[in-house]
Amino acid sequence: MATAYAFVAPAVTLLVVLVGYPFLLALYLSASDAVVGDMGRFVGLGQFARLLRQEIFQQTLRNTGIYTTTAVVAKVVLGMALALVLAGLGRHRLPGSRLIRAAILLPWIVPTALSTVAWKWMFEPQFSVINWVLVRLGAIAYVSDLQWLGEAHLARAAVIIVNVWRGIPFFAINLLAGLLSIPDDLYEAAETDGATAFTRFWLITVPLLRPVLATVVLFSLIMTISDFNIVYVLTRGGPINSTHLLATLAHQTGLITGEIGRGAATSLFMLPFLMVIVFYQMRLMRRKWEW
Protein backbone atom coordinates (compact mmCIF):
# COMPACT_ATOMS: atom_id res chain seq x y z
CA MET A 1 0.00 0.00 0.00
CA ALA A 2 2.84 2.40 0.86
CA THR A 3 4.40 1.78 -2.54
CA ALA A 4 1.12 2.62 -4.25
CA TYR A 5 0.86 5.93 -2.36
CA ALA A 6 4.47 6.71 -3.29
CA PHE A 7 3.67 6.29 -6.99
CA VAL A 8 0.53 8.44 -6.74
CA ALA A 9 2.10 11.17 -4.59
CA PRO A 10 3.92 13.09 -7.41
CA ALA A 11 0.75 13.32 -9.50
CA VAL A 12 -1.33 14.42 -6.50
CA THR A 13 1.31 17.00 -5.53
CA LEU A 14 1.35 18.49 -9.04
CA LEU A 15 -2.45 18.54 -9.08
CA VAL A 16 -2.64 20.36 -5.76
CA VAL A 17 0.12 22.87 -6.61
CA LEU A 18 -0.79 23.62 -10.23
CA VAL A 19 -4.59 23.26 -10.11
CA GLY A 20 -5.89 23.20 -6.55
CA TYR A 21 -3.99 26.19 -5.12
CA PRO A 22 -4.66 28.56 -8.10
CA PHE A 23 -8.32 27.58 -8.08
CA LEU A 24 -8.75 28.21 -4.36
CA LEU A 25 -6.83 31.50 -4.65
CA ALA A 26 -9.11 32.56 -7.51
CA LEU A 27 -12.15 31.73 -5.35
CA TYR A 28 -10.83 33.94 -2.55
CA LEU A 29 -9.92 36.79 -4.90
CA SER A 30 -13.37 36.69 -6.51
CA ALA A 31 -14.92 37.27 -3.07
CA SER A 32 -12.56 40.13 -2.17
CA ASP A 33 -11.79 43.69 -3.28
CA ALA A 34 -8.13 42.84 -3.96
CA VAL A 35 -6.07 45.04 -6.26
CA VAL A 36 -2.49 44.73 -7.48
CA GLY A 37 -0.19 44.75 -4.44
CA ASP A 38 -3.02 44.43 -1.90
CA MET A 39 -4.94 41.25 -1.10
CA GLY A 40 -7.88 43.40 0.00
CA ARG A 41 -10.67 42.36 2.35
CA PHE A 42 -13.33 39.68 2.09
CA VAL A 43 -16.59 41.05 0.62
CA GLY A 44 -18.32 37.76 -0.20
CA LEU A 45 -21.01 37.68 -2.88
CA GLY A 46 -21.10 41.47 -2.88
CA GLN A 47 -18.45 41.39 -5.60
CA PHE A 48 -20.78 39.43 -7.91
CA ALA A 49 -23.76 41.68 -7.02
CA ARG A 50 -21.65 44.70 -7.94
CA LEU A 51 -20.74 43.08 -11.28
CA LEU A 52 -24.38 42.42 -12.16
CA ARG A 53 -25.18 46.13 -11.71
CA GLN A 54 -22.49 47.23 -14.16
CA GLU A 55 -23.59 47.97 -17.71
CA ILE A 56 -20.38 46.68 -19.29
CA PHE A 57 -20.79 43.33 -17.51
CA GLN A 58 -24.44 43.04 -18.61
CA GLN A 59 -23.40 43.76 -22.18
CA THR A 60 -20.60 41.18 -21.92
CA LEU A 61 -23.09 38.54 -20.76
CA ARG A 62 -25.28 39.30 -23.79
CA ASN A 63 -22.23 39.20 -26.07
CA THR A 64 -21.16 35.82 -24.65
CA GLY A 65 -24.66 34.38 -25.14
CA ILE A 66 -24.98 35.62 -28.73
CA TYR A 67 -21.42 34.60 -29.60
CA THR A 68 -21.76 31.10 -28.17
CA THR A 69 -25.24 30.32 -29.52
CA THR A 70 -24.64 31.65 -33.03
CA ALA A 71 -21.21 30.11 -33.41
CA VAL A 72 -22.17 26.64 -32.14
CA VAL A 73 -25.33 26.46 -34.29
CA ALA A 74 -23.39 27.54 -37.38
CA LYS A 75 -20.64 25.01 -36.68
CA VAL A 76 -23.18 22.19 -36.28
CA VAL A 77 -24.88 22.99 -39.62
CA LEU A 78 -21.72 23.65 -41.63
CA GLY A 79 -19.75 20.86 -39.96
CA MET A 80 -22.52 18.37 -40.74
CA ALA A 81 -22.66 19.53 -44.38
CA LEU A 82 -18.89 19.21 -44.73
CA ALA A 83 -18.88 15.76 -43.08
CA LEU A 84 -21.56 14.55 -45.51
CA VAL A 85 -19.51 15.79 -48.48
CA LEU A 86 -16.35 14.12 -47.16
CA ALA A 87 -18.23 10.86 -46.49
CA GLY A 88 -19.56 10.92 -50.04
CA LEU A 89 -16.05 11.42 -51.42
CA GLY A 90 -14.79 8.54 -49.31
CA ARG A 91 -17.58 6.14 -50.27
CA HIS A 92 -16.98 6.78 -53.98
CA ARG A 93 -13.20 6.52 -53.41
CA LEU A 94 -12.52 9.64 -55.43
CA PRO A 95 -8.81 10.47 -55.89
CA GLY A 96 -7.44 13.02 -53.47
CA SER A 97 -10.14 12.51 -50.84
CA ARG A 98 -7.56 11.81 -48.11
CA LEU A 99 -5.60 14.93 -49.07
CA ILE A 100 -8.79 16.99 -48.89
CA ARG A 101 -9.52 15.64 -45.39
CA ALA A 102 -6.03 16.62 -44.25
CA ALA A 103 -6.32 20.10 -45.81
CA ILE A 104 -9.64 20.72 -44.06
CA LEU A 105 -7.91 20.31 -40.70
CA LEU A 106 -5.60 23.29 -41.37
CA PRO A 107 -7.81 25.92 -39.62
CA TRP A 108 -7.84 23.69 -36.55
CA ILE A 109 -4.08 23.04 -36.63
CA VAL A 110 -2.81 26.59 -37.25
CA PRO A 111 -2.23 28.52 -33.98
CA THR A 112 -5.26 30.65 -33.16
CA ALA A 113 -3.31 33.89 -32.79
CA LEU A 114 -1.59 33.42 -36.17
CA SER A 115 -4.78 32.68 -38.11
CA THR A 116 -6.62 35.51 -36.36
CA VAL A 117 -3.93 37.99 -37.42
CA ALA A 118 -4.55 36.91 -41.03
CA TRP A 119 -8.29 37.45 -40.55
CA LYS A 120 -7.57 40.87 -39.04
CA TRP A 121 -5.84 41.84 -42.26
CA MET A 122 -8.79 40.55 -44.31
CA PHE A 123 -11.17 42.68 -42.22
CA GLU A 124 -8.99 45.78 -42.55
CA PRO A 125 -11.12 48.50 -44.26
CA GLN A 126 -8.59 49.77 -46.82
CA PHE A 127 -6.93 46.52 -47.90
CA SER A 128 -9.70 44.03 -47.07
CA VAL A 129 -9.92 41.24 -49.63
CA ILE A 130 -13.49 40.66 -48.46
CA ASN A 131 -14.53 44.23 -49.24
CA TRP A 132 -12.64 44.11 -52.54
CA VAL A 133 -14.65 41.03 -53.61
CA LEU A 134 -17.92 42.71 -52.53
CA VAL A 135 -17.02 45.80 -54.60
CA ARG A 136 -16.34 43.60 -57.64
CA LEU A 137 -19.70 41.85 -57.12
CA GLY A 138 -21.48 45.20 -56.86
CA ALA A 139 -22.65 44.63 -53.27
CA ILE A 140 -20.92 47.80 -52.01
CA ALA A 141 -19.62 50.91 -53.77
CA TYR A 142 -16.24 51.40 -52.05
CA VAL A 143 -13.88 49.15 -50.10
CA SER A 144 -14.20 51.47 -47.10
CA ASP A 145 -18.00 51.10 -46.93
CA LEU A 146 -17.80 48.19 -44.51
CA GLN A 147 -15.81 48.88 -41.34
CA TRP A 148 -15.68 45.30 -40.14
CA LEU A 149 -13.82 46.02 -36.93
CA GLY A 150 -15.03 49.60 -36.48
CA GLU A 151 -18.81 49.08 -36.21
CA ALA A 152 -20.37 47.13 -33.36
CA HIS A 153 -22.63 44.76 -35.32
CA LEU A 154 -19.97 44.06 -37.96
CA ALA A 155 -17.33 43.46 -35.29
CA ARG A 156 -19.62 40.92 -33.57
CA ALA A 157 -20.16 39.21 -36.91
CA ALA A 158 -16.41 39.21 -37.59
CA VAL A 159 -15.44 37.42 -34.35
CA ILE A 160 -18.22 34.87 -34.87
CA ILE A 161 -17.09 34.23 -38.47
CA VAL A 162 -13.52 33.54 -37.32
CA ASN A 163 -14.71 31.22 -34.53
CA VAL A 164 -16.95 29.30 -36.95
CA TRP A 165 -14.16 29.05 -39.55
CA ARG A 166 -11.80 27.65 -36.94
CA GLY A 167 -14.32 25.24 -35.37
CA ILE A 168 -15.84 23.66 -38.49
CA PRO A 169 -13.00 21.09 -38.92
CA PHE A 170 -13.50 19.90 -35.32
CA PHE A 171 -17.18 19.20 -36.05
CA ALA A 172 -16.61 17.83 -39.53
CA ILE A 173 -13.93 15.29 -38.62
CA ASN A 174 -15.80 13.99 -35.57
CA LEU A 175 -19.10 13.73 -37.45
CA LEU A 176 -17.29 12.10 -40.37
CA ALA A 177 -16.01 9.38 -38.05
CA GLY A 178 -19.60 8.81 -36.92
CA LEU A 179 -20.91 8.76 -40.48
CA LEU A 180 -18.36 6.17 -41.60
CA SER A 181 -19.42 3.87 -38.74
CA ILE A 182 -23.04 3.69 -40.01
CA PRO A 183 -23.56 0.46 -41.99
CA ASP A 184 -24.32 0.99 -45.69
CA ASP A 185 -26.97 -1.77 -45.44
CA LEU A 186 -29.30 0.62 -43.63
CA TYR A 187 -29.17 3.18 -46.46
CA GLU A 188 -29.54 0.47 -49.13
CA ALA A 189 -32.61 -1.02 -47.38
CA ALA A 190 -34.19 2.43 -46.98
CA GLU A 191 -33.49 3.29 -50.62
CA THR A 192 -35.11 -0.01 -51.69
CA ASP A 193 -38.21 0.99 -49.69
CA GLY A 194 -38.37 4.27 -51.61
CA ALA A 195 -37.01 6.60 -48.92
CA THR A 196 -35.84 9.97 -50.22
CA ALA A 197 -32.39 11.38 -49.46
CA PHE A 198 -33.83 13.72 -46.81
CA THR A 199 -35.78 10.85 -45.19
CA ARG A 200 -32.64 8.70 -45.03
CA PHE A 201 -30.73 11.61 -43.47
CA TRP A 202 -33.44 12.43 -40.92
CA LEU A 203 -34.42 8.88 -39.92
CA ILE A 204 -31.07 7.09 -40.17
CA THR A 205 -28.15 9.53 -40.11
CA VAL A 206 -29.32 11.94 -37.42
CA PRO A 207 -30.42 9.30 -34.84
CA LEU A 208 -27.24 7.26 -35.28
CA LEU A 209 -25.06 10.38 -35.03
CA ARG A 210 -26.78 11.58 -31.85
CA PRO A 211 -24.11 10.34 -29.38
CA VAL A 212 -21.25 11.86 -31.40
CA LEU A 213 -23.18 15.07 -32.03
CA ALA A 214 -24.08 15.51 -28.36
CA THR A 215 -20.48 15.09 -27.22
CA VAL A 216 -19.07 17.40 -29.89
CA VAL A 217 -21.64 20.13 -29.15
CA LEU A 218 -20.91 20.02 -25.44
CA PHE A 219 -17.14 20.23 -25.99
CA SER A 220 -17.67 23.12 -28.40
CA LEU A 221 -19.91 24.96 -25.91
CA ILE A 222 -17.19 24.81 -23.29
CA MET A 223 -14.49 26.01 -25.68
CA THR A 224 -16.65 28.78 -27.18
CA ILE A 225 -17.89 30.19 -23.86
CA SER A 226 -14.31 30.40 -22.59
CA ASP A 227 -12.87 31.74 -25.86
CA PHE A 228 -10.25 34.47 -25.48
CA ASN A 229 -7.69 34.48 -28.29
CA ILE A 230 -9.94 35.39 -31.22
CA VAL A 231 -11.59 38.40 -29.58
CA TYR A 232 -8.39 39.63 -27.94
CA VAL A 233 -6.34 39.57 -31.17
CA LEU A 234 -9.12 40.78 -33.47
CA THR A 235 -10.88 43.56 -31.52
CA ARG A 236 -9.62 43.55 -27.90
CA GLY A 237 -13.28 43.79 -26.91
CA GLY A 238 -14.06 46.89 -29.01
CA PRO A 239 -15.50 48.91 -30.50
CA ILE A 240 -17.06 50.39 -27.33
CA ASN A 241 -16.96 46.99 -25.56
CA SER A 242 -19.34 45.52 -28.13
CA THR A 243 -17.36 42.27 -28.57
CA HIS A 244 -16.17 41.67 -25.03
CA LEU A 245 -16.59 38.11 -23.75
CA LEU A 246 -16.27 37.14 -20.09
CA ALA A 247 -12.67 35.99 -20.59
CA THR A 248 -11.51 39.20 -22.31
CA LEU A 249 -13.35 41.41 -19.81
CA ALA A 250 -11.75 39.50 -16.94
CA HIS A 251 -8.32 40.06 -18.53
CA GLN A 252 -8.96 43.78 -18.98
CA THR A 253 -10.33 44.25 -15.47
CA GLY A 254 -7.91 42.06 -13.55
CA LEU A 255 -4.60 42.49 -15.38
CA ILE A 256 -4.81 45.82 -17.20
CA THR A 257 -6.70 47.98 -14.68
CA GLY A 258 -5.32 46.02 -11.70
CA GLU A 259 -8.64 45.15 -10.02
CA ILE A 260 -7.74 41.50 -9.46
CA GLY A 261 -10.75 40.75 -7.28
CA ARG A 262 -13.26 42.00 -9.84
CA GLY A 263 -11.36 40.28 -12.66
CA ALA A 264 -11.42 36.95 -10.79
CA ALA A 265 -15.17 37.35 -10.13
CA THR A 266 -15.76 38.04 -13.83
CA SER A 267 -13.87 34.93 -14.93
CA LEU A 268 -15.49 32.71 -12.28
CA PHE A 269 -18.96 33.90 -13.28
CA MET A 270 -18.71 31.25 -16.02
CA LEU A 271 -18.00 28.47 -13.53
CA PRO A 272 -21.62 27.43 -12.71
CA PHE A 273 -22.53 27.27 -16.42
CA LEU A 274 -19.42 25.25 -17.27
CA MET A 275 -20.06 22.88 -14.35
CA VAL A 276 -23.61 22.22 -15.63
CA ILE A 277 -22.25 21.54 -19.11
CA VAL A 278 -19.56 19.21 -17.78
CA PHE A 279 -22.16 17.40 -15.65
CA TYR A 280 -24.36 16.67 -18.66
CA GLN A 281 -21.32 15.80 -20.74
CA MET A 282 -20.24 13.18 -18.20
CA ARG A 283 -23.77 11.76 -18.13
CA LEU A 284 -23.80 11.50 -21.91
CA MET A 285 -20.41 9.80 -21.99
CA ARG A 286 -21.62 7.16 -19.51
CA ARG A 287 -24.97 6.64 -21.19
CA LYS A 288 -25.57 3.49 -23.22
CA TRP A 289 -27.23 4.49 -26.48
CA GLU A 290 -29.75 2.11 -28.01
CA TRP A 291 -31.54 2.39 -31.32
Write up what this structure looks like:
With 291 residues, this protein is mainly alpha-helical. It is 74% helix and 0% strand. The protein is built from 14 helices and no strands. It has helices spanning 2-30, 46-52, 55-91, 97-104, 106-109, 112-122, 129-137, 152-180, 184-192, 197-225, 229-234, 246-256, 260-268, 271-286. Helix 3 (55-91) runs parallel beside helix 8 and helix 12 packs antiparallel against helix 13 (260-268). The chain starts with a helix and ends in a 5-residue tail after the last helix.
Q: Profile the largest sheet.
A: none
DSSP strand tally: 0
**Rg over alpha carbons:** 23 Å
Average pLDDT, rounded to a whole number, is 88
Residue stretches low in confidence (pLDDT < 50, at least 5 long) are none
Structural class by helix and strand composition? mainly alpha
Order of helices and strands: HHHHHHHHHHHHHH
Distance between the termini: 45 Å
Proportion of helical residues: over 70%
Total number of helices: 14
Tell me the β content.
Answer: under 5%
Give the CA-based shape.
globular
